[in-house]
């Protein structure tokens, strides 16, 4: 079981600030994650026999094809500065 002290240690290692009012919800969430990991760890997985076929599926031949020019691609861009799509930084 995850304790509040465990949550505080994890928060410090992750350089996160967790308020006292958030501590219990984070503890519950981490506890459920660990419980789920324990469930997965207990799953029975059949041993490999060595006769399994792990070959990759067959795909079409990878061949070069003509594509749009840079000018065509940027024609409808709102701000095609320096030959690429300029976007605003998020966050």
Secondary structure elements and their pairing?
Layout: H1 4-13, H2 20-41, H3 70-74
Helix pairs in contact: 1-2
Please give a structural write-up.
- This protein is mainly α.
- It has a domain at 4-41.
- The protein has three helices and no strands.
- It has helices spanning 4-13, 20-41, 70-74.
- Helix 1 crosses helix 2 (20-41).
- The radius of gyration is 26 Å and the shape is flat.
- The mean pLDDT is 89.
The parts where pLDDT drops under 50 for at least 5 residues are none
In total, how many beta strands?
A: 0
Specify the biggest β-sheet: none
Quote the distance from N terminus to C terminus: 35 Å
Mind telling me the C-alpha Rg? 26 Å
**What's the number of helices?**
3
- Mean model confidence by pLDDT: 89
**Helix residue percentage:** 40-55%
Query: What structural category do the secondary elements indicate?
Result: mainly alpha
Strand content: under 5%
Order of helices and strands: HHH
Task: Write down the overall geometry.
Answer: flat
Keywords:
single chain, 91 residues, mainly alpha, 3 helices
Q: What is the compact description of this entry?
A:
With 91 residues, this protein is mainly alpha-helical. It has helices at 4-13, 20-41, 70-74. The protein has a domain at 4-41.
């Amino acid at each position: 079981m995850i304790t509040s002290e465990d949550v505080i240690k994890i928060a410090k290692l992750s350089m996160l600030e967790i308020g006292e009012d958030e501590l219990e919800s984070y503890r519950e969430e981490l506890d459920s994650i660990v419980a789920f990991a324990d469930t997965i760890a207990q799953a029975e997985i059949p041993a490999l026999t060595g006769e399994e076929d792990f070959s990759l599926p067959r795909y079409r031949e990878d061949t070069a094809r003509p594509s749009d020019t840079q000018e065509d691609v940027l024609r409808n861009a709102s701000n095609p500065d320096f030959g690429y799509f300029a976007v605003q930084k998020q966050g």
